Amino acid sequence: MSKRTHISTTVNGDPVEFLSDPGVTLLDALRDELQLTGAKEGCGSGDCGACSVMLDGRLVCSCLVLAVEAEDRRIETIEGMAQGGELHPLQQKFLEHAALQCGFCTPGLLVASKALLDQNPDPTETEVRYWLAGNLCRCTGYDKIIRAVMDAAAELRQARRVA
Amino acid sequence: MTDVMDKPALKVVGTRPIRPDGVDKVTGRAAYGADFAMPGMIWGKIKRSPHAHARIVSIDTKKARALPGVKAVVTAADFPDLASQEFEAGESASNLRDMSLNVMARGKALYKGHAVAAVAAASPQIAQAALELIEVTYEVLPHVIDVEAAMAPGAPLLHDHLYTEGLDEHPAAPSNIAKRNRLERGDLAAGFAAAEVIVEGRYVTQAVHQGYIEPHACVCAMSQDGQAQVWSSSQGQFMVRTYSAKILGIDAANIRVTPAEIGGGFGGKTVVYLEPVALALSRQSGLPVKMVMTREEVFEATGPTSGAVVEVKLGAKKDGRIVAAEVELKYQAGAFPGSPVGAGSMTALAVYDIENFRITGWDVVTNTPKVAAYRAPGAPISAFGVESAVDDLALKLGMDPIAIRELNGVRNGVKASYGPTFRDIGFQETLAAAKAHPHWSAPLGPNQGRGVAAGFWFNIGGESTAAVHINEDGGAVVATGNPDIGGSRASMAMMAAEVLGLPVEKVRPIVADTASIGFSMLTGGSRTTFATGMAVTQAAEKIVADLKRRAGLLWDVPVDQIAWEGGAAHCLDPRKDVKPLTLAALAAQSGKTGGPISAEVAINAQGAGPGFGVHICDVEIDRETGHVSVVRYTAVQDVGKAIHPAYVEGQIQGGAVQGIGWALNEEYVFDREGRMENPGFLDYRVPVASDLPMIDAVMVEVPNPRHPFGAKGVGEVPIVPPLAAVANAVRGALGVRMSELPMSPPKVRAVLDSL
């Protein structure tokens, strides 16, 4: 096997280092080297979105990124979404709306939804549907997910107005 | 059993609390099959056949074994060569030999992707490299995929010893037809002779996959004394134990299975693929072995459900009364017998009361992965044919499509086409709710069409165990043996909380491993909330009886003078001046009244009420591209009593969308060599958020009197009507019936071109 490379990166605000084979994906490195198993592998080809993470503020499928590409970059995963003991409004709304059944696609959907609301605080239903078209959910039929995202967006807008 | 109607107002059941496993699932903390790791673990991978049908001449594993880092290599030679033997396991009978041969091919590979060998190595990369060093010599054989081609004389034979069962005479020669089944009543010829209008159709569906987002995964560790631990994602930890023990020829007592969280199943995780292989690799290496399938492996070597050909002929009087029906069902079983054609036959006409009918089902082996259960197995396919034909009949008679279903639909007291007599069913109520829904009378736009279709599923009960333990502070733990695939922890906790009089947050539901709870059938057949819920309710009722007895001891009052209400014992004896004793107070004094408060109930639940659905679908056709979009969708279903309405709606919405995918997009596509051409989510396209409108789920609550809260299964009914509901809507929009699924853009374009 090839020699392993030393990677220094930032995950959810913390500096981390690990060793990686050149062919290993960021997803596998997160899961197997850093024990961050919140991002899931559903397809390994960037088609299901279950492995969605943020890389330098951009939404990516971590199964399509090599671990070595994480050098000096900023990674955010589902594990960093709740702040301390408090859930992000999206997480709370997913719970309240029953927007998950098996829950396997949920981390990816939450990361992707947060990326949307960070750049578009007032999306239409159609915009939410198209933004989340890369995140497959086989259980819910998407209905409750879309409602949860719309509701979280409204709550975040309200919070911003109050602030 | 208590009459539902006598129940006092429910406080917890019927509300929408946040599910107890929810926070773990939205924070990424929940551990699914592939999330588990063990110290010293190695990685297993499977070598699979590149051919759809081939004799395995030889397998040379020497080079793979010599690769540094490789710890074990297994082939069929490492598994017992089992005799053909039917055994009851889970929802239906399985053949032990077939199950073993599907896990690891012996002698012949029967489909592209069939496992022929496996390795375990220090890293996934080494395991992958070792797979390529295993040399398999094949003699490629002619293959057959299409169900009717497989039935034809002279078709390539998969199994030399397969003789069709169920024929009037024992066949002289083997064939690919494993079985013929038949359901009939009345006089078919007389029925058609009396008919004034006849419609006929031939309907074709392709194999579709359950498409759960989580690929199969497990970690298995067998120690030198033969005792094994298994962590895996499945629809039943007991099913994994039974199958693994039988395939390996070891005692069930030697296997303990701990269920991981399950990332979807829909029936597709009611069988084992990896666990026996990982156990064999662990036995050989002495190390824990982790195995995870790729998406390509999931498509090529697990599931799907059958592709099929369905022929339907209906005869009716001018007033719309159906007097004769003939249905022929030809279902692909995949490499081994066992398509869901039996259930397809039993459900085909289950929503109708028809005097004369004959249903014939054919179970046919083909060079494709062995089919697995998929949500209401068999029923969507036969319903697609029958509900399309009923629509054509309504059109021919100039009748409203809901009215024709009301006229012919089953009611209480009708003898079902599959045998029993219906009682306490809600089909007519469901039709009435569909007719009254504003969707049914809303105007349609240009290029739009509206379709309606009905569907039926039996729902089942079966063996379940539940234990309820009272904590020293008056809270409770509910342990059951069923994986939580869609929110069952919530419904278990709610039913226990209701009986005990606790807030639901005080009840912690646990999915126990096979060594910590008594046997439970797998999570399937829409049985868990009904059957396991019944075990939970009965265990909680035992606790209440015990608590009343203990309060009686403390008060020195006979137990019939004590009532349990609002989570406390109340003394009914007016001579006693005592305050109610809460569950917490009784728990705190349990040492004085007999020790720990705990109850376990093991039952074989009966009385699962069958479910009916009526779906309304509006589509719009893009005449330029042939693309069909669903613009409005309403799914009405009788659900008994909804324990957690939000998760019942979720089941209805999810099932409807899987059915929409089946109708419009999903299909296995094979090349000339019998290899699947689209084994990934890019080309096997399941519905995505932007393909869909909101799905209006309407719950009709006709309580099931045989469940303490009136519950019935809800998970399977919603995938039965959509295939025909969409097809009937497309017929409305195009003015022409499309009878082959999926109604994908090229096929719709072809129809548009022919107009």
Automatic annotation (TrEMBL), chain A:
Record keywords, A-Z: 2Fe-2S, Iron, Iron-sulfur, Metal-binding, Oxidoreductase
GO molecular function, one term: metal ion binding
CDD domains xrefs: fer2
Gene3D superfamilies tied to this protein: 3.10.20.30, [2Fe-2S]-binding domain
Domain of life of the organism encoding this protein: Bacteria
Organism: Phenylobacterium montanum
Descriptive protein name: (2Fe-2S)-binding protein
Domain 2Fe-2S ferredoxin-type: 5-81
From TrEMBL, chain B:
The UniProt record lists the keyword Amino-acid biosynthesis: no
The keyword Oxidoreductase appears for this protein: yes
Domain Aldehyde oxidase/xanthine dehydrogenase a/b hammerhead stretches: 27-142
Entry-linked InterPro entries: Ald_Oxase/Xan_DH_a/b, Ald_Oxase/Xan_DH_a/b_sf, Ald_Oxase/xanthine_DH-like, AldOxase/xan_DH_MoCoBD1, AldOxase/xan_DH_MoCoBD2, AldOxase/xan_DH_Mopterin-bd_sf
Gene Ontology molecular function: any one: oxidoreductase activity
Gene3D superfamilies the UniProt entry points to: Aldehyde oxidase/xanthine dehydrogenase, a/b hammerhead, Aldehyde oxidase/xanthine dehydrogenase, molybdopterin binding domain
Keywords, alphabetical: Molybdenum, Oxidoreductase
UniProt name for this protein: Xanthine dehydrogenase family protein molybdopterin-binding subunit
Organism name: Phenylobacterium montanum
High-level lineage: Bacteria, Pseudomonadati, Pseudomonadota, Alphaproteobacteria, Caulobacterales
